[in-house]
Amino acid sequence: MDIKTASALRRLRLVSAPEAVSFLLLLVCSVLKRTTEFNAVPAMGMIHGVLFVLYVLFWLDAWNRTKWDLKTAALYFVLSVLPTGGFFAERKLKREAEAAVIASRARKEGIVNA
Prior knowledge:
The protein is an all-alpha fold. It has one domain. The chain contains four helices and no strands. It has helices spanning about 5-35, 40-65, 70-80, 85-110. Helix 1 runs antiparallel to helix 2 (about 40-65), helix 1 (about 5-35) runs antiparallel to helix 4 and helix 3 packs antiparallel against helix 4 (about 85-110).
């Protein structure tokens, strides 16, 4: 894996958890808006919107660089629209990055997988 691909995965991973947190906070703010006088939906909506747009842009970049198949790319996109999906995406991306580092080191040392 080259440095640009690793960077694309890292950016996607770093934005996935905050995007999930902002989604959950937006849901809480929506409930509070309807049950109390508290209305933070406009501010939280904007924050979540920015994080979601960043997630989608980073997802497109990662998909382009990693050459994921359609199933994998769709999974990461679906995880972005589920309230806690960003947490699962972050964990999966972390495992994928670790596997890529191990494979890169193995290639560097001349170890061939059978």
